Amino acid sequence: MEFPTRTPSQLGAVLRGQRKKRKLTQADAGANVGLRQNAVSTIEADPGRSSVGRLFKLLSALDLELVVRDKGQRKGVGEGW
Fold first, then answer.
1. DSSP class of residue 67?
2. Would you give the distance in Å from CA 45 to the centre of its chain?
3. Which of 25, 30, 40, 79 has the fewest C-beta atoms lying within 10 Å of its C-beta?
4. In whole angstroms, what is the distance from residue 3 CA to residue 67 CA?
């Protein structure tokens, strides 16, 4: 399943939702990849403040990947980020 994400807050919500779907606590998810619970909390709350490396660690812990693609010419796109 894909989750188009256009803002940092949307990314945080997707990450939190996927972690909860997998029935992982923040501590459990972080422990799998060497992140502390407070780092996972920060990524979920404000991914814009997190390093790309930490983001990829959490993506790995949740068995997710980042896909970059052209947005195309869809209606409503271009607002915000």
1. -
2. 10
3. 79
4. 10
